[in-house]
């Protein structure tokens, strides 16, 4: 029963983290939001480490670090496939694969459930599809590239769960600390590389040419400001810049909140795997879209589709069955 409670609660909190991450990504770059969230989670876990405890054994460092790599791959592929679309197909596909991979590993590894438990897992997998399904008018058939990216993202999430499960039971928060440290480092390095590449002269021109281009751009910008000045006073430009800074600050705050919530969700996931079965936790965790759509309905007044309501009911049914299985 404790595993079911931790699994469902963790899924809802993971969904809340995704909701906050989505709000952050609308205001700053998704990569920046992810990096800030990862580093915030790392700080929170380091603060909690003396209280909860953690043993940095070779196993904890190895599996935790590898899970950080897997998490970075999962996030990158997830953003890429959702950008290609359609989300209504690729999002639930990612969630299902993220559940199937660790479920298969657990069952092959010898985990066994009663007949009620297997029925519950089946119902939960159906719920994952329905909860993550967002009906889109005129949705197009997904491309092979989008499907492969969704499968890759789901597999990477599943591998993350398997790697966390492989960490020693007495390692405490150590695997999660390593996960956040490696994940955050990868994101920072990626940001640094993109920043350097973005500053390089384009079109094979020398730095001088680049300066000429910059000068031309500056002239264009000056003309634009002049045009603006013809229609409004100079204070309009200042206000626009101030508004942009306010948007960025809001995005960073949302990213920080995302990192805090995500760290809590990962901690619940870790505890759930250690007190229960990987097969159960992997399927319940895949219900994370439920938290996102519920918050979107409450905060943003977005409508929950009937098919998603069915998915939510099935999810609660499956959780109840797993609690008594």
Automatic annotation (TrEMBL):
Keywords: Membrane, Transmembrane, Transmembrane helix. It comes from the Bacteria. The keyword Oxidoreductase does not apply. Residues 3-132, 250-322 form the EamA domain. SUPFAM superfamilies: Multidrug resistance efflux transporter EmrE. The keyword tRNA processing does not apply. InterPro entries: EamA_dom, EmrE-like. Pfam families: EamA (PF00892). GO terms for cellular component: membrane. Belongs to the EamA transporter family. This is EamA/RhaT family transporter.
């Amino acid at each position: 029963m404790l595993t079911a409670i931790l699994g469902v609660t963790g899924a809802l909190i993971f969904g809340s983290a995704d909701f906050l991450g989505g709000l952050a990504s609308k205001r700053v770059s998704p990569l920046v939001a992810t990096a800030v969230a990862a580093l915030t989670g790392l700080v929170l876990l380091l603060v909690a480490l003396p209280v909860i405890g953690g043993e940095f054994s070779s196993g904890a460092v190895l599996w935790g670090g590898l899970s950080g790599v897997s998490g970075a791959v999962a996030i990158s592929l997830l953003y890429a496939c959702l950008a290609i679309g359609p989300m209504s197909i690729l999002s639930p596909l990612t969630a299902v694969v993220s559940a199937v991979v660790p479920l298969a590993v657990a069952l092959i590894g010898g985990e066994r459930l009663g007949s009620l438990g297997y029925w519950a897992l089946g119902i939960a997998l159906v719920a994952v599809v329905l909860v993550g399904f967002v009906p889109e008018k005129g949705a197009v058939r997904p491309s092979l590239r989008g499907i492969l990216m969704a499968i890759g993202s789901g597999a990477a999430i599943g591998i993350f769960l398997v790697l966390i499960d492989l960490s020693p039971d007495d390692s405490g928060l150590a695997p999660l600390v390593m996960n956040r440290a490696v994940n955050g480092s990868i994101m920072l390095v990626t940001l640094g590389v993109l920043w350097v590449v973005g500053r390089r002269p384009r079109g094979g021109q020398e730095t001088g040419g680049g300066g000429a281009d910059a000068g031309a751009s500056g002239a264009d910008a000056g003309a634009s400001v002049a045009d603006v000045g013809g229609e409004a006073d100079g204070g309009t430009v200042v206000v626009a810049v101030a508004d942009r800074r306010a948007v960025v600050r809001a995005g960073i705050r949302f990213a920080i909140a995302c990192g805090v919530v995500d760290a809590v969700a990962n901690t619940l996931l870790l505890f759930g795997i250690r007190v229960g079965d990987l097969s159960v936790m992997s399927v319940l965790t895949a219900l994370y879209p439920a938290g996102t759509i519920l918050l979107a309905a409450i905060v943003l007044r977005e409508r929950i589709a009937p098919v998603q309501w069915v998915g939510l009911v099935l999810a609660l049914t499956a959780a109840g069955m797993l609690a008594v299985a």
